Amino acid sequence: MSCFSAMSAPLLGEMEQTIGMLERGTIVTKLYGKQRRPDRRHLMLIRETRQLLWATVATQTPRTDYEGAIQLREIREIRVGKHSKEFRLFADDCQRFESSKCFVILHGNHFKLKSFSVVALSEIEADNWVRGLRYMVKDTLGAPYPLQIDRWLRREYYQIENVNTHSAKATEQSPAQVTIKDFKLFLAGVSCKMTTGKFMEHFTEDVRRKHDLKFDDFSRLYQKLLLPNGFASVLSGSGVANFPYSEDQQVVRPAELKQFLETEQRDVSASEISSAAIASFIRDFVQDVERDVQEPYLTFPEFVDFLFSKQNDLWNSKYDQVFMDMNLPLSSYWIASSHNTYLTGDQFSSESSCEAYARALRMGCRCIELDCWNGPDNLPYIFHGHTITSKIKFMDVIKTIKDHAFTSSEYPVILSIEQNCSLEQQRNMAQALIEVFGDMLLTQPCDRNEQHLPSPYQLRRKIILKHKKLPQFDDIANGISSTGSLGHRSSLGGAGGGAHGENDGENVRKVFKEGLLYFKDPVDKSWNLYQFVLTHQELIYSSEINESRNGNSEDDDFGLSSSCSLNSNMQQKQKDTSANDELHFGENWFHGKLEGGRKEADDLLKKYKHFGDGTFLVRESATFVGDYSLSFWRRNRPNHCRIKLKHENGSIKYYLVENFVFDSLYSLIVYYRKNMLRSSEFSIILKEPVPQPKKHEDQEWFHPNTTKEQAEQGLYRLEIGSFLVRPSVQSINAFVISFTINRKIKHCRIMQEGRLYGIDTMNFESLVSLINYYTRNPLYRNVKLSHPVSQELLRQALAEAAQGDHSGGHDDNGASNYMGSNLEENVTCKALYSYKANKPDELSFPKHAIITNVQRDNSMWWIGDYGGMIKKHLPANYVKVIDSTTEDYNSLNEEGTDGRTDSIEIFGAVASLFESNDPGIIFKLQIQTPTMQNPFVIGFDNQETAYEWIKAIQEAALIASQLASERRKKERTARVAKEMSDLIIYFRSVPFREHSWIFQEMSSFPETKAEKQFFQQNTQLFLSYHRNQISRVYPKGQRLDSSNFNPMPFWNVGSQMIALNYQTGDKAMQLNQAKFRNNGQCGYILKPSFMKSDSFNPNNPLCDGLSEVKVSIRLIAARHLFRGGKSNNPQIVVELIGASFDTGVKYRTKVNENGFNPVWNESCEFNVRNPQFAILRFEVQDEDMFAETHFIAQACYPLTCIRQGYRSVILRNKFSEELELSSLLINIKIANVTAP
Q1: Short-list 347, 352, 365, 443, CA closest to 401
Q2: 934 and 1033, same structural domain?
Q3: Which end of the chain is more exposed for a tag (fewer CB within 10 A), N or C?
Q4: Residues 435 and 925: beta-carbon distance below 8 Å
C-alpha cells in the first residue's frame, strides 16, 4: 500500500556528521554571471527550513544577512565538475580549479533551470556537499505532510523576522519581533480573508498585550485556521454530522484507519497489513516523540492532513515502475518526443542551450531534435536556422546527450537530425558521433533476418539516429569476373569499423582476387606469407593465415597448402568452431547438445524454477538424432516435448503440433513465446529462457576481478603462451584474453553475442571451447595459449613484480620494465581518421596517412612529420603506432580490434612491378595511393602470379574510381554523406507514400499536413500504417512562440512520435507529461491491443475492445490556492481529454472567495467509453473583478492510473512541477458500465 511506503530514515553515523558540517557552513568560491567575477562566499545548510543559504564572508550573521537562498525541494540535479554556463564563461579563470572541487546545483520550477556553480576549498569538502545535499534533497521530498507544513511555516516566520530585523524600527534596545499585524499580512498573502474583529478573536489577552508572536503561537494559529469549521460533516457527505471512522470525533485510531482504507479507499491490500504496520505508519507520519507509543493515533486535523498529503495521492504509485511488455516492435509504442529540443524559449530569438537537452532527457523524453548547420572547425552548430536564436556546438550537444541519455530511462534515445550541413561537415559529424557515443551508438541491425522493428528492450541503452539515408549503390562491378564472396571484412578501421549499417559487406561484396602473398613485417623485417583479398574498394591482408600454413600447427588436420583459398580455410576452422548460420544457433534459449542430456536439462530448469511456469530451453535431442527437444517448467516440474522435423519441397519444416509447421526452429519458438502452446495435456506460453551455463567460471584461467594493469604486471615475467581470461571493462558482453609474447603483453577481445563467443569471424559455443581451440592452434604469431595462469599464480607474479619495481624496475638482463616503456623513442603511426589543422603548429593528414618521426608523451598531442610538414602537433587519439621496438604493428588491444587484419583503400591506386634482390622474392609489387606517404609493397616468388595481381589491382582501382564517382554524384543529389548514411539503421527519413512500406523507414509531418492526412483524407490508411510504421508529427512553422498543438488526436490515430516544445508550459505539454508519467516514466507507452485490430476506429465508441466506465467525482475542498501572493477567487474545472466522443469539460465549480482553504463539496458524473485514451485534468482558475479567469494550477492523470476513494490531487504549475502544499481533496469512484 503506497501510503505505507517507508518514511525517510533518521540521519545516523557518518551522514549525520556530514550534515552537521553543512549546517556549520564552509567557505566556497561562487561563480556569477557575465556582470560579476567569481567571489568567496559562506555557504551553509539550514536543516529546519530545508534551505541552502550563502552570504559574504564578512557577514557575522549569515542566517539573517544572506545574499541568496535555494529551497532544497526545488533542486533538480547536483553535478560534480565544471559543467555549467558559469564555468564556461570564466573558463580561463577556472583552469586553476580542480574539477573534483567543483560542483553545480540546478534548481527551479520552470523548464529552464537556474544554475548555482561553486568551488570548494578541498575535494573532501566538495564531496561532503554533494553527498549531503543529495541525501537531504531526497529526505526533503519524502518528508511527511506535517513536517512539510512545519518547514514551510518556519521559512515564512523567519522571513518576516528578517525583514523586521533590517527595518529601521529594529534597534539594539528594541529587538525584532513578529507581531499580530505581521501575521495578518501573512494570512492576506496566502489568501486567508477575515475581518479584523474575527481575526483578533483567535488571540489570547496575553498575546494581544505583548503584541509578539513566537513561532509556536504562529504555527498553532495557522493550523487552527487551516481546518474549516464543520469539516467532519463535509467530509462525510450526505448530510451526516459525524465522521464514521472516528468514534469520539477527536482522534482516528489504527483500527479505524484500517477500516477507512478498506471501505472508502478500496485498498485491497489494506486487509493484509498488520495493526503494527499501521501503527508504525502513524508514528512516522506524526513525527512526535511524545506520541511514539504502542497505540498511536491521528488527531482529526492530522487525519485531514493525511487526506491532503502526497501519500494519499490520486496517482497509483505502482505505475512508477516499468510494467508494460517492452519486447514488442517500436511501432507498438507511443514515444515521448521533443521538437527543437535545444531551445529554451521562442522559435525566433531565444537561447539555445545544452542544458535543454539534459532537462528533456531527464524528464523522460526519448526522441530529441538536432538542427545542424555549418559551423567552425568543420563541425556543425545547432540552432534554429534563419533566426537570431543563439548557437551551440554540435560536439557539446552530443557530449551532453551521452551524459544524460539514460539517467531516467534505460530505453533507447532517438536523435532526430535535421540536416543542413555540407557533405564535409556531415562526414565529421559521423566521425564525432562514433567517437563520443562509442558502443552506445546503434550501427548494426539487431537481427539480420528481422521482419519488423526491434523492441525497446532489445535497444536498451542505445542511441539511434533518425536521418535521410542514401539509396543503395548500383553494383558497377557486375561485369568484372570474381572468384567468390568474402565471408568477412576488415576488422580494422578505427572507431568506425562497425558503423556501416546494413551495407557491412558493401566494401567487400566482389572479390576480384585472393591468395597467399609475401609481406615484409614492419617489426622483424622478415617476409611472411599473408592472406590477401582484393575487392573493388580495398586490399585486405591478414597475418592469421600465415600462422597456420607454414607447418607450425601441431594439428595435422589444420595444416593447409599455400594454394588453398580463404573460403576453404574458413571451412576448416568451422570444424572446431560454431560457424552455424541457423537463426536459432545464437539465441540464449538454445543450449545445443547438453552433455548430461535430459537430466542436465532437468537440473537447469530446477535451478531457475523461480522464473516461474514457462521457463524453457531448447536442446539437441539425445534420442532422435537431428531433432530437437523443448524442455520447460510447468506446475513445479520439468516437461519435455520433441520438436519434429519433416521435409517439404526440399526444405526442412519444424513442428510441435501436426499440421502447424514453421520454416525454422527460431520461428517456432518466437511464435510460442507470444501464443499458447496447446496439447491434450497442457497449455502454456514460453516465457523466460534458461540462462546459458557459465562453465568458464570454474576454470583456473578465468579471473573475474583482474584488471588490465594487473594482468600486464603479472604476466610480464611469465613464459610465452601464459594467459588468463578476464571480463572486459569496455563492454558488458565481452571478455579479454591477456597473454605473453616475446616479453610483451597482448590483449585480445572476445565478443559474446547471444550464446556464442567470437574472435573476429570465428564463433564458439562456450568460452571453454574457444580457449581449448587456441591451446591447439596459434592465436597470434605462432603463439598458442599453452600456460593457464591461476589467480594464485598471478598473485605471486604481482608480488614479485612489486618487489622488482622496488629494487629498480629492471630484470636480470637489464631490460626495462614493460610498464615503463620508453615514450621518448620516435615511432611511425598510421592515421585512423582524417584531421584538419586548426592552428599553424598542427598537422593536417588524411585517413590512412603514414606519419613518421612521431614523438610521444603522456599528453593528448604528439609531434610528427607528414607531407613536408616537420614537427607539427597531431591528436594522439587519431593515430595508431605501427612501427617501434616496443609495440607491434599488429598490436591487440581492448579498445580496438585484434590486429591480425588490416587493409588499404584501392581508390586512386597506382601499381608498378619490379624485380627484387631479396632472397626468395623475385618480384615486388608497389602500390601508391593519394593518401599514402610511403608505398605499400607485396612480394612474389612466382612471375605469373605477380602479373595476375598487378592486372587485378589496376582493374579494381578503375572500379573503385567509378564507384567513388557514383557515390559523390548520389551524395550531391541527396545532400547526404555516405559516412552519415551508413549510421542510419532504422529511422530512415523518407517522404510518405501510400504503399510499399519498409519497416526501417519513417515519415514526418507538420501538424497541419498531419491533420489533413490523418483525420480528413486517409484515416484508415494511417491506422494501418501506424501498426508497423512510425510517424512523427511536429508543430507548424507559424508557432513562433513555441506553443504546442493538442497531441491527443494524433496519439489516438496511432502516431508514435508527437514532438512538442518541452520548454513551453502549456496544456499540450501537461497532457504529454501526464501520459508519459505512466510505465515508470521510461518514455515508452504500449498502445492498447485494440488498436491492432483492422476494425479499430478512434472515432467509433462501439469498437471492439473498449470498456466503458462511469466516473463519479465529489470535489470536496482545497488548500493553498494562491496566485503570486494575491488574494483570489478560485474555481475548479474538471476536464477529460481522450477519444473525440469522450473529450470535453465535465464540470465547473462555483467561484469560491477563499483561496486559503476553500470548500465546495460539489459532485459530477460522466461516462468514459474509451478509458485507455482518457486523461483526467483538473485546472484551478482565479476569477478577477472583471470575471476573467487566470491560471493558478493544474493536475493531469491518465484515467487508468488513478486510485479510488478520498484522494489528494497534487497540484502543479504550468510546467508540471509540484506546487508546495497545494492540493485538492476529492472522492472519486470508477465503475464498469455493463452493456445493455
Answers
A1: 365
A2: no
A3: C
A4: no
Compute mean pLDDT per 10 residues along the chain, 1236 residues long, and list them.
42 81 94 87 95 91 88 95 89 86 95 95 94 95 93 91 72 69 86 80 72 85 89 80 83 90 83 83 85 84 94 95 96 97 94 96 96 91 94 95 95 96 93 92 87 94 95 48 35 34 42 84 70 86 50 30 34 42 74 84 90 90 81 91 83 83 86 85 87 86 89 84 88 86 80 80 84 86 85 87 55 34 64 78 80 75 83 81 43 37 82 90 90 82 91 90 85 90 93 92 95 91 94 95 96 97 96 97 96 93 92 95 74 96 95 89 96 96 83 96 96 95 95 82
φ/ψ of residue 406, rounded to 5:
-120, 30
Whether 713 contacts 720, CB under 8 Å: no
DSSP character string of 767-802: HHHHHHHHHHS-SBTTB---EE--HHHHHHHHHHHH
Residue among 269, 312, 92, 535 at smallest CA distance from 1227: 312
What does the DSSP 8-state code read for residue 1016? Answer: I
Residue ranges in 349-458 assigned as alpha helix (H): 354-362, 394-404, 423-437
Which are the contacts of 157, defined by CB distance < 8 A and separation ≥ 6? 178, 215, 218, 219
968 in helix, strand or coil?
helix
Which pLDDT value is given to residue 497?
A: 36
- Tell whether 931 is covered by a domain: yes
- CATH number of domain containing 630: 3.30.505.10
Q: Which residue has cell 477500516?
A: 259
SS3 1189: strand
Q: What number of other Cβ atoms are within 10 A of residue 155's Cβ?
A: 17
Q: Looking at the domain assignment, is residue 61 inside a domain? A: yes
Count of domains forming the chain: 8
Q: Give the C-alpha distances (Å, rounded to integers) separating 856 from 829, 880, 886, 887.
A: 11, 11, 13, 13
3-state secondary structure of 670: helix
| Candidates 42, 83, 107, 384; catalytic one | 384
The answer as to whether 254 is a domain residue is no
pLDDT for the residue 175 = 63
* Residue 1221 in grid coordinates: 502544499
Question: Choosing from 339, 404, 696, 848, which is the catalytic residue?
Answer: 339
| Dist. CA 864–CA 873, nearest whole Å | 7
In the residue annotation, 339 being an active-site residue is answered as yes
* Same domain for 1010 and 1076: yes
Q: Which three cell numbers stand for residue 1178?
A: 483538473
94 three-state secondary structure:
helix
Reduce the secondary structure of 729-759 to three states and give it as a string.
CCCCCEEEEEEEECCEEEEEEEEEECCEEEE
Q: Count CB atoms within 10 A of the CB of residue 19.
A: 20
Q: Is the dihedral of CA 695, 696, 697, 698 positive or negative?
A: positive
The pLDDT, as a whole number, for residue 121 is 94
Residue entry with cell 560542483:
103
Q: Phi and psi at residue 614, in whole multiples of 5°?
A: 100, -10
Q: Do residues 793 and 838 share a domain?
A: no
488 as an active site residue: the answer is no
CA distance linking residue 1018 with residue 834, whole number of Å? 48
Query: Which grid coordinates are listed for 1190?
Result: 487566470
Is residue 702 one of the residues assigned to a domain? no
Other beta carbons within 10 angstroms of residue 454's beta carbon come to 22
Range of the domain at 183: 146-226
- Report d(CA 385, CA 974) in Å as an integer: 20
CA 668 vs. chain centroid, Å, equals 32
Q: Are the beta carbons of 578 and 756 closer than 8 angstroms?
A: yes
Residues 113 and 159 in one domain: no
Distance, CA of 768 to CA of 765 (rounded, Å):
8
Instruction: Give backbone dihedrals phi and psi of 711, rounded to 5 degrees, phi first.
Output: -60, -45
CATH code for position 134: 2.30.29.30
C-alpha 984/C-alpha 501 separation (Å) is: 7
